[in-house]
Amino acid sequence: MRNSENGQNGSRSVQFADGIPASDRQWEAIVACDAAFNDRFFYAVKTTRIFCRPSCKSKEPRRDHVLVFGKVGDAIGAGFRACKRCKPTGERLPDQEWVHQITAYIDSHLQDDLSLESLSQISHGSVFHMHRTFKRLQGVTPIAYIQNRRIAEAGRLLACSGLGITEVAAKVGLPNVPYFTTLFKRVTGRTPAEYRTANLNSEPRERKDEHESSECSAGPVDAGRY
């Protein structure tokens, strides 16, 4: 990696491929959404895997989650995706790819507090546009998709792990056990305990890591019920 000073406004002309932490001046530009720094550097957020222009109006990230790149190609090469809102590549991200990014985030963050607002923040789009586009392409709303994935994952854990029902509920982002039980029964027709009894592996049961038994899965879940 390398970088050089350009002497203008106390900022750097960034030249590196792997990304580095933002300097004080770059961070000030990010916080201020300063368009004067557009194309002089791009910043990426490690938690969302999205990169933006300095002028992006998305939610201010944590500074320790930010990496700065000198070129669009460097950010893409490091595995970051272009922001839907500020379009740092100059091109509009296809809706299908955008929605895929959102579903991938949901799938890997089921334990988090997921909402329309949080999804719009991580996807860098408005709540209305994100909701409408997601439903058009997925056939269900984002909230329905989240609930569907949570119940499906809960079914997998109940059938394939030795985790208790309280632990399973927490693992899928539904820590309120009575609510989890009611929702699970509404979707599957069984309580979590009944579902576990009916779907346990035929092999001797032992306390397995929740990431094991990838071949074991819950029964189908109708997200359209939500």
TrEMBL record:
Cofactor(s) required, per the database record: Zn(2+)
Keywords: Activator, DNA-binding, Methyltransferase, Transcription, Transcription regulation, Transferase
Superkingdom of source: Bacteria
Residue span(s) of domain HTH araC/xylS-type: 100-198
Chain spans, region Disordered: 195-226
TM region(s), chain numbering: none
Signal peptide: none
High-level lineage: Bacteria, Bacillati, Bacillota, Bacilli, Bacillales
Source species of the chain: Paenibacillus aurantiacus
Record field: compositional bias (Basic and acidic residues): 203-214
Record-given protein name: Bifunctional transcriptional activator/DNA repair enzyme AdaA
PANTHER family for this protein: ARAC-FAMILY TRANSCRIPTIONAL REGULATOR, HTH-TYPE TRANSCRIPTIONAL ACTIVATOR RHAS
